[in-house]
Write a structure and sequence with these properties.
- This is Opacity protein-like surface antigen.
- This protein has one helix at residues 2-25; strands at residues 44-58, 61-74, 77-91, 95-109, 115-137, 140-145, 151-155, 158-181, 184-210, 213-216, 222-244, 247-258, 261-273, 276-288, 291-302.
- It is mainly beta.
- The protein has one domain (44-302).
- The chain is rod-shaped and about 90 Å long.
């Protein structure tokens, strides 16, 4: 019996030792390292990019209102005075232009979902100009003879050699919502826009039809130019595709409309003609509202 117990104890010790040796012979399992996919879209990022855009600009029409006043002197003595005024609608052609394009912004996912939010600031230098040549602004008024006080009605068309409207540059701030699909994102947004415009009336001359004869009342042609910054609204849809290492391509379409704005102009004139001299003013305004459609392609870096 004593020998049997010793044998069992020996076997138990041998088995235990073998198990410990087996445990010591097996190396510890190495931790699994997860390497981020360099081709995937980051969960959040600031970004900036540059590229080019194709722009279609609709200029609408210039709603012009002009007023001309005149005092006529003969040998330094006032003999007549009068004025004429009237409106005109000058239609402007639409224009197509290519332009450089810049953008910068930020986006972030909503938690662990594929939905995200963000905002971008875009800049396009358009430099698009529409010109309408040889425009006529019909005007009607009267002149009064100082000696007898009699007023005589007359028409006085104003001639404009070239009426021009220009969108110089456009800046859009677009908050957006988007959805990611792997390394692709689609998005849409609405926001304010700020555009620099220029209104020009070149070669303006005030004329008068007196007794069937066209008379140059204002003398040498005058040029008027007005720069304005106007606000508006823009809508945008777009898509991005990540190329890897934080670089991505962005393609978007936007439609923007500015608020209606008015450019004012005024200038005195002197028109000598022998012993007779006309002194007066040319005063007026031009109101218009442009809209733009832009397709932009940029290469961007996410940070």
């Amino acid at each position: 019996m004593r020998d049997l117990c010793l044998a069992v104890a020996a076997v138990t010790a041998l088995v235990a030792g073998s198990a410990e040796a087996a445990d010591l012979s097996q190396p510890a399992a190495a931790p699994v390292l997860v390497t981020p996919n360099p081709w995937s879209m980051p969960n959040s990022a600031f970004f900036a990019g540059l590229g080019a855009s194709a722009n279609a600009v609709h200029f609408g029409s210039q709603d012009v209102y002009a007023i001309g006043t005149s005092n006529v002197y003969q040998n330094g003595v006032l003999v007549d005075y009068g004025s004429a005024q009237g409106p005109a609608k000058i239609s402007m052609n639409s224009k197509f232009a290519f332009a450089p394009s810049l953008q910068a912004g930020y986006y972030q996912r909503f938690g662990a979902s594929d939905w995200l939010w963000g905002a971008k600031l875009t800049y396009n230098y358009l430099g698009a100009t529409s010109t309408n040549n040889n425009s006529i602004i019909p005007q009607f008024g009267s002149f009064t003879n100082v000696s007898n006080g009699v007023s005589v009605p007359f028409s006085g068309p104003a001639y404009v050699r070239a009426a021009q409207t220009t969108i110089v540059q456009e800046i859009d701030l677009i908050p957006f919502l988007g959805h990611s699909f792997g390394r692709t994102m689609v998005y849409a947004g609405l926001g304010p826009t700020l555009s620099q415009t220029r209104t020009q009336l070149n070669g303006l001359v005030g004329l008068a039809d007196i007794g069937g004869s066209i008379v140059d009342q204002s003398g040498a042609p005058q040029n008027f130019s007005n720069y304005s910054w106007v606000i508006g609204g823009a809508a945008m849809v777009g898509a991005t595709y990540f190329l890897g290492s934080g670089w991505f391509i962005d393609v978007n379409y936007s439609y923007a409309v500015t608020s209606r704005h008015t450019a004012n102009f005024a200038s005195p004139f002197t028109n000598p003609n022998g012993s007779t001299t006309s002194l007066g003013t040319l005063v007026g305004s031009s109101a218009w509202r442009p809209s733009t459609q832009v397709v932009s392609l940029t290469i961007n870096r996410a940070f």
